[in-house]
Amino acid sequence: MIKKINQLIFASAILLHVSGCSLVQANTQHPKGYETYITPGEQFKHSSFSTINNDIVELGDTRKLIILFATWCSDSQRTLKELQASPLINDPTIQIIAIGRNEQRETLEEFNQEYNLPFALVADPSREIYSQYANAGIPRLILLDKSNNVVKTLIGEQPNIIDELNW
Fold first, then answer.
1. Residue 10 lies in a domain
2. pLDDT tens sequence across 131-155
3. Which CDD domains does UniProt cross-reference here (predicted)?
């Protein structure tokens, strides 16, 4: 009996860990306990990243879309496919950077072979970047203005989250 209870607790913990996210703006209470640690108007905490190709990408003087995602997450996969199909992907006034939460460089390289993403990919294997912006939930989308101030934060579980990206 105790073994079955322990198995149920373990299975529940795994399910909670793997579950995705939902559309939430910063400063709102999310039913799954997701917290966002940066709010509209605040300065983004990073000004550059090291990509999976060991290049340094600086946040430019254009609008930015920062995507915190995971390769295994179906919501993240869908969001990236929707982004690829949107006009944003070819907009020269928007810089896009995707950060793989708990992802190694090699995993992101393999993922990119399938997705062929035309923007910078950054590995965050121990959540050093992610934990500065949120406690849980992916994909996270953070929109920044030209001065790197946060305009909006979103969590995307549902389809068409890309349609919410207006700034």
1. no
2. 999 999 999 999 999 999 999 999 9
3. TlpA_like_family
Q: Is residue 15 one of the residues assigned to a domain?
A: no
Question: Is residue 75 situated within a structural domain?
Answer: yes
Percentage, residues of the chain above pLDDT 70: 80
Give the DSSP H/E element, type plus range, for residue 77: helix 74-85
CA-to-CA distance for 121 and 101, rounded, in angstroms? 11
Q: Could you give phi then psi for residue 113, rounded to 5 degrees?
A: -65, -35
Sign of the dihedral defined by the CA atoms of residues 22, 28, 32, 35, in that order? positive
Q: What is the pLDDT of residues 38-59, one digit of tens each?
A: 999 999 999 999 999 999 999 9
Q: pTM for the whole thing? A: 0.80
Q: How many domains does the chain contain in total? A: 1
Can you name the residues that pair with 152 across neighbouring β-strands?
143
